[in-house]
Specification:
alpha/beta, single chain, five-stranded mixed sheet
Length: 150
Amino acid sequence: MSSSTEAAGECGKTAWPEVVGLSIEEAKKVILKDKPDADIVVLPIGAPVTKDFRPNRVRIFVDTVAETPHQKLAIARYQLTMSSEDGAGGKRSWPEVVGMTIDEAKEVILKDMPDAEIEVLVVGTPVTRDFRPNRVRIFVDTVKSTPAVG
């Protein structure tokens, strides 16, 4: 391979503004078409990141709620043993926030459940099955900003 070809390969596409607004899966397809060796990392907007540079890493930041956030009861026995003072009578899902941004969804959830501990996760992230009465998980999946190499 000539040095000019090597240089062109190293200087390939480094940003994908055209994927903003797409789902994670759609964005990954576009990026991998242009950069087949990309190590794609999907993170919610505001997630902490390292400042090191990796030429194959492409970070995709997402922020739109993809699923109904809910306070999931992992094991049936919790449903049987919870008393009304444990939160059995409170709101446990928020279908109205699907399509909102993370901040908008948090605001709605905190109005109904001021003590909620809200976790923002990317769709498909593995989660524990333990039950915490104040935990509400928000799953996000729409690209918010231009993915770029680094």
